[in-house]
Design brief:
six-stranded mixed beta sheet, binds ligand L2IWW6SD, oxidoreductase, EC 1.1.1.35, alpha/beta, about 10% strand, fatty acid metabolism
Length: about 725
């Protein structure tokens, strides 16, 4: 709703009230219309201020209402009512003016912002366009290039930038509402002819055609199949080719197409999923709202390789004192230099103070004795990690949380090396650790709720999206990756090339295909793990070379590693690069010949595999594992899996995540295809449909928010 008051006798103040961000729900829109009419009809009122309760102007349309039937007054006429008013209306922008919130402000005659406010049109991130006049008013106000940039990226601008661009008229360090009231008094009675943005002429410039062409090229390149950015450009284009009223019609038309699209549903689902994962729970009943995190002031990182360096940067930037340990002096010095550079670049980029003095470097593990939390980030070697956990258990003060950055090893095995297994959790960062937003927080069967809560809270402090997951091989992300990778290898055996598989996945929207990712992260990483698991049998021939434990196995990755082809770092992998460390992947004739020779050796007849089969086999095997993970209670809900895949594995956000995608395709369809492929490849375990997907499909495929009801609660783990 909206609250009306009169200030200083002549200023009508309309306060939006819809916590936490004063989103424009039906009730708020009704409140605005009612209070505007009141302000306009009271003769004593000479001007109006619109503001939001609790220091937040408005977070935009109420996204929760998007799924329901439209009630209350629509936004566009409501904003026209404000703009057409004969009394000056001033927006007092505190906190945020986003989406419909900024469009509302653009309908006002003046805008005053607090210096800490953020303004933007982030609709594109929800699969939409600014459909309440934003695409027509903003270019008229600030010009096409700046409007295009803000609308197609959805980026939030600071108040200072908004002032520079001409979006706001004044910025204040004090109360924006007080400033707006004063301002409203000063403009009472003045002509509003030049203040109604919809009446501004169409933006003109001789290079507009070029600007739009460039913008369209850029969004097509970066959108990876997302339709909203492209549609945003089309809507802004209407602002230069059509008069305002016609432009609004075009905006409405384009908005309606997006509004009902699967991509908009996926992005809106993802918006709430990313927020829902902070409300974690475990099968034993531990929960985010009943588990208190411990205070952490001092943290330590053991091992300053690529991951340890990124983790140290993240901790320092979160304001913690950090002890960074690397036992070899030379490596310690190298790491120190590298970390300082990373901090410097990051401080420059983010415009924040340098956090270099937060980190103390040391050669001795003893230096972590008084840390509240230690993150071990050494090589992925269980024996080494065990030794470190034994050491830490003896060195650290009582109550220190011991975390491991393993990407898939058994947390409980490490916990059992310590005297306090309840204080051991996994903190699985993703490379580069100071950039990637995802953190898998892994609880073992003995981790305490308090330890889990502390690690989750630490992730948040570091600006990460933390997802709590149970302990199993590979946790959620890497466990699901295994059947996906496996299918990609099998496709090569059956006749595909790495380029073909990657193209299909990139067309789907992945930032990189599976083979390019493998080259980037290093083929040797998986090879080491497979060796440790006893899967690598050098020189094996005949049928046994492609079978492990009764199931189909592809040794292709092992064979490449035996040739020293580790990917980008060696200049050769699934692709070739111009030099070791090169970034541009080129098809490699050697690899094609090697595949032919391999197929001939194993009596495999290459066939033409269509795109659909490549996509289905890779994705459905991954999704099937996701259902198994839900059934095993490793992830509490499909949202957890989807957030992990979008933030950690390049799954296209506009497809919502693998579990959402499965729902969109139709669980019965996914099940039917899995059954088909399992029949064709009975020796591939990953294609055998998991019982949860069967159960859901048999129950008429309920919507994703109801899947949890169908998951059998596993026995207590904590
Ligand atoms: C018919 C339509 C016609 C015209 C087009 C207009 C379209 C729109 O306006 S679409 C909405 C555009 N606005 C946004 O995209 C803003 C989305 N919100 C945010 O970016 C952030 O929430 C924030 C910057 C506003 C605040 O961030 P922060 O302080 O970090 O809090 P949270 O993100 O955790 O949010 C708190 C809480 O609020 C819920 N919420 C936020 N925005 C909205 C919204 N617009 N509608 C409904 N609910 C919103 C958010 O989900 C959190 O609640 P939960 O934790 O319960 O999920």
């Amino acid at each position: 709703m909206a609250f009306y008051s009169r200030v200083s006798g002549s200023v009508g103040v309309i306060t939006l009230q819809n916590p936490p961000v004063n989103a424009l729900s039906a009730a708020v829109r009704q409140g605005i219309v009612d209070t505007m009419h009141r302000a306009l009809s009271e003769p004593e009122v000479k001007s109006v201020v619109i503001c939001g309760q609790n220091g937040k102007f408005c977070g935009g349309a109420d996204i929760r209402e998007f799924g329901a039937n439209m009630r209350g007054p629509p936004l566009v006429p409501m904003i026209h009512l404000i703009e057409a008013a004969e009394k000056p209306v001033v927006a007092a922008i505190e906190g945020v003016a986003l989406g419909g919130g900024l469009e509302l402000a653009l309908g006002c005659h003046y805008r005053i912002a607090h210096s800490k406010a953020r303004l933007g049109l982030p609709e594109v991130t929800l699969g939409l366009l600014p459909g309440a006049g934003g695409t027509q008013r903003l270019p008229r106000l600030i010009g096409v290039p700046a409007a295009l940039e803000l609308i197609t990226t959805g980026r939030h601008a600071t108040a200072a930038e908004a002032l520079q661009l001409g979006i706001v008229d004044e910025v204040t360090d004090h109360s924006a509402v007080d400033a707006a009231v004063k301002f409203a008094q000063s403009v009472a009675g003045k002509s509003l002819d030049a203040r109604r943005i919809s009446t501004y002429p169409r933006p003109r410039s001789p290079d507009l055609a070029e600007i739009f062409e460039k913008a369209m090229k850029e969004v097509r390149r970066s959108a990876r199949g997302a339709i909203a950015p492209v549609t945003c450009v089309q809507a802004v284009h209407a602002s230069v080719t059509l008069p305002y009223a016609k432009g609004m019609e075009r905006e409405r038309e384009l908005f309606s197409t997006l509004f009902t699209s699967g991509q908009a549903h996926a992005l809106q689902y993802y918006f709430f999923a990313q927020r829902a994962v902070s409300r974690w729970s475990t099968p034993s009943g531990a929960r985010w709202d009943t588990s208190k995190p411990r205070p952490v002031h001092k943290a330590a990182v053991i091992g300053l390789g690529t991951m340890g360096r990124g983790i140290s940067v993240s901790l320092a930037q979160a304001g913690l004192s950090v002890v960074a340990v690397e036992t070899q002096e030379k490596q310690l010095l190298e790491a120190k230099q590298a970390v300082s550079g990373m901090l410097e670049r990051s401080a420059k980029r983010r415009g924040v103070p340098l956090a270099d003095d937060k980190i103390k470097y040391n050669c001795s593990v003893q230096a972590v004795a008084d840390a509240d939390l230690v993150i071990e980030a050494v090589f992925e070697d269980m024996a080494l990690k065990k030794t470190i956990f034994q050491q830490l258990s003896g060195i650290c003060k009582p109550g220190t949380l011991l975390c491991t950055n393993t990407s898939g090893l058994d947390i409980d095995e490490l916990a059992s090396q310590t005297q306090s297994p309840e204080l051991v959790v996994g903190m699985h960062f993703f490379a580069p650790a100071h950039v990637m937003k995802l953190l898998e927080v892994v609880y073992g069967p003995r981790s305490s709720p308090e330890a889990l809560a502390t690690a989750m809270e630490m992730g948040k402090k570091m600006g990460k999206v933390s997802v709590a997951v149970g302990n199993c091989r590979g946790f959620v992300g890497n466990r699901m990756l295994k059947p996906y990778l496996e299918q990609a290898f099998f496709l090569l055996e059956e006749g595909a090339t790495p380029e073909q598989v990657d193209q299909v996945l990139e067309e789907f929207g992945f930032a990189m295909g599976v083979f390019k990712v493998s080259d980037l992260s290093g083929l040797d990483v998986g090879w080491k793990v497979r060796k440790a698991d006893g899967l690598v049998v050098p020189g094996s021939t005949g049928k046994s070379a492609r079978i492990r434990g009764g199931s189909r196995y592809s040794p292709l990755g092992d064979l490449l590693c035996e040739q020293g082809r580790f990917g980008q770092k060696t200049g050769r992998g699934w692709y070739q690069y111009d030099k070791p460390g090169g970034r541009v992947a080129k098809p490699d004739p050697w690899l094609h010949g090697f595949l032919e020779e391999y197929r001939a050796r194993h009596g495999l007849v290459a066939r033409r595999i269509d795109h659909q089969e490549m996509l289905e086999r890779c994705l459905y095997a991954l999704i099937n594992e996701g259902f198994q993970i839900l059934q095993d209670g490793i992830a509490a809900g499909p949202e957890d899996i989807d957030v992990i895949y979008v933030l950690g594995y390049g799954w296209p956000r506009h497809r919502g995540g693998p579990m959402f995608y499965a729902g969109l395709v139709g669980l019965d369809k996914v099940l039917e295809r899995l059954e088909h492929y399992h029949q064709v490849y009975p020796d591939v375990l990953g294609l055998k449909p998991c019982s949860l997907i069967r159960k859901l499909a048999a129950s008429s495929s309920p919507p994703i928010h109801r899947w949890r009801e169908f998951i059998q609660k596993p026995r207590s783990q904590l």
